[in-house]
Amino acid sequence: MEQTFSGLMALTLGDIGLPSDHLAWKALLLTVISLLVGILGGFVGLALGTIRLPALLLLGTPAAIAGGTNIMVSSLSSLTGAIKHWRGGRVDMRIVMVMGIPAFAGAFAGGFLSGVIHEGILLFLAGLLVLWQGVEFIIIYQNRVKSGQSTSPLFGAGLEGSSGLFSPGRVSAEAGIGLGVGLLGGAVGLILGSIRLPALVRVLKIDPRIAAGSNLFIGFFMGAVGWIGHASQGKVDYPVLVLMGAGAMVGSWYGAKLTGKVNLNTLILTMGFVLLAVGLLLAYRGTLPLFQ
Question: What ranges do the domains of the chain cover?
Fold first, then answer.
């Protein structure tokens, strides 16, 4: 019995004919995690690759392969929402031009950089981004509690109906943010929609519903473009990508149906503390190989 259990634990996806060295139980666990993160992401309107990427890394996936796999999973997770927003007229092509095109270019370059940057640096950068995401969520929670918000959008409450401010200075700032976020996200394997979304609202002063729809649209294409750079260097685990991608899409669809049925503020605060802890752990792990 013990030998049978040990054999199952040592079974890899390659042993069942799939081109992957991942242990089967880890791949199954990653699929479940991706499904649950998809539900959470669908609920709050974000792909939340900042949670999937640490799961891949902490379960032993090399940083470059984890990034290449995760960025496409995040892209697929955004697909359902992007289509829904597009059909609902909540995608502003001005935003796609201003922030999306620089983000696409940055993600494409970043995807190629992932193959030449030291794995420790990739881990450290990913840790910093996850850490910042945790800080951002805690700040959002504090602001929402102070203002008495409970069901309003995460960003931009009070801007409903706003057509935005597209002055030259704001457009330039938004384009620069898009390029920087795309470059960094493409390298570490994140589409970073949670950084783009508040930037869209705060800089362009646009209706948060339009910002969310445009952000998901940008995120889907940015992830796909960034993935090309990883894939061209063989930095993708395709069986794990298919499993996690399917879980993410199903979870995102179901999570969107749950919106409004759970206390959003409690959810945001919990996510914030979890991401803080995971970000610190990843950043610490990233520094270890740099000093060996």
Answer: 21-291
